[in-house]
Amino acid sequence: MIVKTVLMLLVFITPLVIVNTGIISSVWLTFALYILSGFGMAGIGMGIMHDAIHNSYSKNQKVNKYLGYTLNLIGANASIWRIQHNVLHHTFTNIEEADDDINPPFFLRFTPHTKWYSIHKFQHIYSWFFYGLSTVSWVTAKDFVRMVKFKKMGFFKGGTAFNKELSKVILWKVISFGFVLVLPMIMSPVAWWIILLAFISMHFVTGLMITTIFQLAHIVPTTEYPLPNEEGIVEGDWASHQLFTTSNFSPKSRLFSWLIGGLNYQIEHHLLPNICHVHYRKISHIVAETAKEYGLPYHNKHSFFSAVGQHFKMLRHLGTRDKLSVG
């Protein structure tokens, strides 16, 4: 974890430092440096902050706290993400409206219970483009939209707490955007609009990588989308719910798993989010055997590309017509 942390932070920061020195006048090299930084950003998101905010990076909670701020460093916000991911997504996985991960804009449909529009017939084609733009939306607008939503849900007690958190969010974004976008526009000899396009390219790489990896775990034909009953209760226990709504992929590729922060073992992560991802491979055999013993599913795709194919198939199914049953 320490090696990965140092490596990903260097891959993210070093190219931007080079751009900020003003010694790079080549447009293509500028793009290359920003794209390289995008890979580092994705590595921070999947391999550092994810464990830290789950308090599973270290037994020392101060280490988890400060490494969680690496999410703030790349333009998002740890406090907001903790609510959206740790609380809502991990508690209400694949439950429409409750799980914010499957509540996208109207032109994307990630559950058979969501209202169908004719544009969804093409979502298996255009979704990937919007995956690439997801982190641009995240760092510019989505954090503020979620803050307002979470305030209405009662996560911020009183206006003072909300305003204090809002001030922190704005300050962190000023620092991040200042280093990644504004300062390069000032220091670099290339045109400001080139820097802006390179910035978007960086985020496109990050967004496409991160969103695809997370989608493969939940939006595939084998996962389920349970609904609450008339009393607003989802039947079954929480652990079984995670097995029905989550899928693993590419379990034999150690290097790939290392690069994406063990997120190919999403079942283990959802059941045991307080365990560092470096242990998922070893405990996966125990989880699989236990699921089999109790007659519960253990969804697993043998490779990354087979999982991508299944996600593509699911997007096409969900885009075919309203209330489509997927088997």
UniProtKB/TrEMBL annotation:
CDD domains for the chain? Delta6-FADS-like (cd03506)
Q: What is this protein called?
A: Acyl-CoA desaturase
Tell me, which GO biological process terms does this entry list?
lipid biosynthetic process
Q: Using the record, list the residue span of the signal peptide; answer none if the entry has no such feature.
A: none
Q: Name one GO molecular function term.
A: oxidoreductase activity, acting on paired donors, with oxidation of a pair of donors resulting in the reduction of molecular oxygen to two molecules of water
Q: Which UniProt keywords apply?
A: Membrane, Transmembrane, Transmembrane helix
One protein family per Pfam: FA_desaturase
* UniProt GO cellular component terms: membrane
Any stretches that span the bilayer, and where are they? 7-25, 31-54, 66-84, 125-145, 166-186, 192-214
Q: Can you name the source organism? A: Christiangramia lutea
What are the residue boundaries of the Fatty acid desaturase domain, all occurrences included? 27-299
Highest rank taxon of the organism: Bacteria
